[in-house]
Amino acid sequence: MIGYAATFLIIAIIAGVLGFTGIAGVAVEIAWITFVIGLILAVVFMVLGRRPRI
Question: TM segments (predicted)?
């Protein structure tokens, strides 16, 4: 997920430099959403992985 966020952020930067502000805005929004989802999943898996085995 974090890799996708970085990819979309790079796409947004390139699109912004080239003047495609609409595409850059959409790419930034997608990057932000994928980053937040990836961060939430990382925390959830970290918490679930620390539970003792029964």
Answer: 7-24, 30-48
- What's the structural domain count of the chain? 1
Range of the domain at 20: 2-49
Q: Is the dihedral of CA 27, 29, 30, 32 positive or negative?
A: positive
Q: Is residue 43 part of a domain?
A: yes
Q: Convert the pLDDT of each residue in 4-16 to its tens digit.
A: 888 988 999 999 9
User: Which candidate, 47, 48, 8, places its Cα nearest to that of 28?
Assistant: 8
- Which two three-digit tokens encode residue 26? 């959409």
Q: Model-level pTM? A: 0.74
- Is residue 54 domain-resident? no
